[in-house]
Amino acid sequence: MPVIDELMRAFERGDLARMNALTSDDFDLRIDQYRDETDVAWQRCANRGELHALLGRLATEVFPKGTHILSMETEELTGGWTMSALRQRFFYAVRGREVISRTWIIAHASDGRCDYFRETVATIADVPVG
To answer: Most buried one in 28, 55, 71, 114, CB count within 10 A?
Structure first.
């Protein structure tokens, strides 16, 4: 299983110890949103210490009830690079309701640890009530 898949599954479980094992000390992460007015400038980190702070904020401001990965398809490229398509369902605190998001993740791993992560949230759709 690609490192990025393991990392995302650890995130889904809230398994910080496993996430630490799967990320490098200089883990470089940024999350962007396509055509959305939500402020995501804070959704970035340049090392594992900053990642811990970011995860705490994500847990309260974005994923207060966690997340459930509906599907993740990863294509392994060359030189440790991967491209993933992710669909997840979660209670989105920003909207105050359940949503399904579709994102694209470009990641790099070396020696079994992810050192680069760029996620673009392409769509966030409200789950119909009822």
So the answer is: 114
